[in-house]
Amino acid sequence: MELTLTENAWREISRHALETFPEECCGIVLSNGKTDDVRRCTNMQNLLHAHDPEVYTRDATTAYTMDIKELELVMREAENTGARIKAFYHSHPGHEPYFSQEDKAFASPFGEPTFPETAQIVVSIYDRVVRRVRAYMWGADKKDFVEVPLRKISPS
């Protein structure tokens, strides 16, 4: 298993992480087989935390919750255009790009991934500098997400 991202998608994800720092960004990568298109999503975590800090104990500096309406719009766009959801992404400001227990819970709320063929990208950003970008995919044999090589490709 390996994940490839176009140079433009890689740049856009990095730019999103930089623009939202010190908060986490989140979004979706769509692919039509030739190009990857990034769809930014709103991180709702600050709103949820403000509304109910006992349930949502973390704010957007250490957590994200993707806006469900935006997620549904991107899913509908993929369906209408024949694109596939290639990856979900989010950033870890001030932390390494590991796939946390919270990340796993988002990706597999019922123990199995909602999108088993879709990669999970985590961007590590410190002091407005993207340090590392890692990708994870569902390993059916391991029943867990495993890190996979991530390769940036130039447009042909």
Distance between the termini: 22 Å
Number of helices: 4
The secondary-structure element order is EHEEHHEHEEEE
Please report which band the strand proportion falls in: under 5%, 5-15%, 15-25%, 25-35%, 35-45% or over 45%. 25-35%
* Average pLDDT level: 95
Strand order of the largest sheet: 3-2-4-5-6-7
Query: Which outline best applies?
Result: globular
Low-confidence stretches: none
Domain module tally:
1
CATH topology heading: Cytidine Deaminase, domain 2
Q: Using DSSP, what is the number of strands?
A: 8
Largest sheet geometry: 6 strands, mixed
CATH superfamily: Cytidine Deaminase, domain 2
Which CATH first-tier class would you pick?
A: Alpha Beta
CATH architecture: 3-Layer(aba) Sandwich
How does the helix and strand content classify structurally? alpha/beta
> Which range best describes the helical content: under 10%, 10-25%, 25-40%, 40-55%, 55-70% or over 70%?
25-40%
Radius of gyration: 15 Å
